[in-house]
Amino acid sequence: MSTTLTLDGFVRWLESFRARIDEQTAYLTELDSAIGDADHGSNMARGMAAVMTKVGESPAATADELFKTVGMTLVTSVGGASGPLYGTFFLRVGMAAGPVSECDAAALAAALRAGLEGVVARGKAEAGDKTMFDALSPALDAMDAAVAAGASLEEATAAARDAAATGRDATEPLVARKGRASYLGERSAGHLDPGATSTALLFEALAEVTAA
Amino acid sequence: MKKLINAPEAVLADALKGIEAAHADLRVDHAGRVIYRATPKDQGTVALVSGGGSGHEPLHGGFVGFGMLDAACAGEVFTSPTPDQMQAATKEVDRGAGVLHIVKNYTGDVMNFEMAAELAAMEASVDVKTIVVNDDVAVQDSLYTAGRRGVGLTVLLEKIVGAAAEQGRSLDDLVALSEKVNGEGRSMGMALTSCTVPAAGKPTFDLPDDQMEIGVGIHGEPGRHRVPLADAHHIAEQLVEPILADLDFGSSPTIVMLNGMGGTPLIELYLMYGEVAAILQKHGVTIARNLVGNYITSLDMAGCSVTVLRADDELLSLWDAPVETAGLRWGR
């Protein structure tokens, strides 16, 4: 357990996220079949595979460099809505983190918050629209609150993980108002949002890495 | 899943090879996944770039050629292409008069084309304008959705605006013409079955034998309502009436497309066209031109969509203008 996440830690976070996406590719696609177009799992798996290849080929010296590579790779390999949304998320995280080689809990929370703002600018989603926002935003609120209360990096990311999972679960009864699921109207209720589900995996991976 | 494929993950790459083998007047950038005209249009004319997820063939690659598109960016099945593809296509086809992006209103397509336009603007070398097509009357409550989807009208718009581009009209003219077409056309679709995305390996949803989906888009997603199966006449009514309720076609001539979703035989599409034409005529709508066949499909989905475009002399003459593409070909 450490007080900062180093560049190696960021890469382990990405590896762990990729492993979770790979494990749950079929599940994510199944969720997307119910209210979307049955491609979220395979798209994210393709994107994260490309990310790990790129990151392995040209190791970054700083966080901004690393996350720029991650963001651009997702933008250019995923397509759909997830490509621009996850891509913009990581591009903004990198810009906010800056040319550093490690982040403490407060810096990480601030960088992730910038990522959320990028997602909102790109997708214009609000709370309760049944999108990745509904996992991402509560996760960062919980992380900020934990950091403000003096929590450790491990505690803050665990709080974010739990809030993301709660947010994901809360998307089930919602009627979608953004993205392809919105065309189903009332029929989109009763299903978890695939984007909120993959976002919860991102925070599971982060909490795992900071606890290691 | 029974499909004529080598491997689910190779469907797009393999299909692009086949498109290139079949059409000598197309050039395919396999790495960039863009279909171009083999012979670029003249310097000083506006170029048209479209694109979207694959699985809608002949849209968009089948509409690249004289009188329609200059390039089509192919995404994975039902997944929009990426900004780098669109930016590369935009730079490649620009003949100094600007480039029009034709985008179907789907969240992913709009976001990726937006990022492409931002990238192109950063380079400041190409004048890019965008038309977002949104003709699907199945989406009523557009304040609480991502807005009306871009469906069948996209085919008519690419034909009409493509013809105008060949005449040497300016980018601003073409944007205005695109907005006119988009404002005057409406579509409605239905499905008898779901479709099977190769990577998913099974139908996107289950649809019992005695049910159908009304108000579907073009991605095998469920529609607005699931209702009992009806005969062709009553299905035609359920498609035409929402269109007529949405736009008053008055006594103007119209262009009507009866489009197959990919898994319905032509005999049924013609049968449906007969029903649709009779209902439109009963409502006093004049059909000046028509198109019957598979033009904007949803893989192997069975079903159809109806598009009605209110046309004036300008639109009819652009519709009649020569076109030479894999998907539409006349007058040349």
Task: Report a brief summary of the structure.
The complex is a heterodimer of chains A (212) and B (332). Chain A is mostly helical and 212 residues long.
CATH class categorisation of the largest domain in chain B: Alpha Beta
- Count the domains of chain B: 2
For the record, the CATH architecture of chain A stands as Alpha Horseshoe
Q: Separation of termini of chain A? A: 6 Å
CATH first level of chain A: Mainly Alpha
Integer-rounded radius of gyration of chain B: 19 Å
User: How many strand units of chain A?
Assistant: 2
Structural class by helix and strand composition of chain A: mainly alpha
What's the pLDDT, averaged over the residues of chain B? 94
Morphology call of chain B: globular
Shape of chain A: globular
> What is the CA-CA span between the terminal residues of chain B?
41 Å
Point out poorly predicted stretches of chain B.
none
Structural class of chain B: alpha/beta
Q: Beta-strand level of the residues of chain B, as a percent range?
A: 15-25%
Task: State the helix count of chain A.
Answer: 9
Structure description:
- The complex is a heterodimer of chains A (212) and B (332).
- Chain A is mainly α.
- Chain A has one domain (4-211): Serine Threonine Protein Phosphatase 5, Tetratricopeptide repeat.
- Chain A has helices at residues 7-23, 25-35, 40-57, 63-77, 82-97, 105-123, 133-148, 153-170, 194-211, and strands at 4-6, 102-104.
- A two-stranded antiparallel sheet of chain A has the order 1-2.
- In chain A, α8 packs antiparallel against α9 (194-211).
- Chain A is globular.
- The mean pLDDT of chain A is 95.
- With 332 residues, chain B is of the alpha/beta class.
- Chain B has two domains: 13-184, 3-Layer(aba) Sandwich (Rossmann fold); 186-319, Hypothetical Protein Tm841, Chain: A,domain 3 (2-Layer Sandwich).
- Chain B has a six-stranded mixed β-sheet, with helices on both faces. In chain B, strands 10-9-8-13-11-12 form a six-stranded mixed β-sheet.
- In chain B, β6 (99-104), α3 and β7 (128-133) form a beta-alpha-beta unit.
- The radius of gyration of chain B is 19 Å and the shape is globular.
- Classes of the chains: A mainly alpha (212), B alpha/beta (332).
- The A-B interface holds A 29, 33-39, 42-43, 46, 75-85, 122-123, 175, 177-180, 182-185, 187 and B 53, 75-84, 106-108, 111-112, 114-115, 138-139, 141, 144-146, 149, 197, 199-200, 204-205, 217, 219-222, 224.
